[in-house]
User: Which sequence fits this backbone?
């Protein structure tokens, strides 16, 4: 759910969530309008999962370099954050 030009825009997930819980729709609406802060939930396994994913990525890139002879180019973090249309 997003607020664009003062109008609420719904995704398919928003509609499916509404079918399961109309109260959730009201909470999301208030959050989209800035009336309510979304809850912060800390998943204790998320950091572990992220770290394992990064380690896997590094290992796979090293594998490609060592066995396939590929040269891997890294995109700078500040450029990767920009939408493609702004990169030109």
Assistant:
């Amino acid at each position: 759910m997003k607020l664009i030009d003062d109008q609420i825009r719904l995704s398919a997930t928003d509609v499916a969530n509404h079918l399961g819980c109309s109260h959730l729709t009201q909470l999301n609406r208030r959050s989209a309008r800035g009336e309510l802060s979304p809850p912060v939930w800390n998943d204790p396994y998320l950091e572990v999962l992220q770290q394992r994913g990064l380690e896997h990525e590094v290992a796979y890139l090293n594998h490609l370099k060592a066995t396939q002879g590929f040269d891997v180019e890294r995109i700078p973090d500040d450029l990767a954050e920009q939408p493609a249309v702004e990169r030109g």
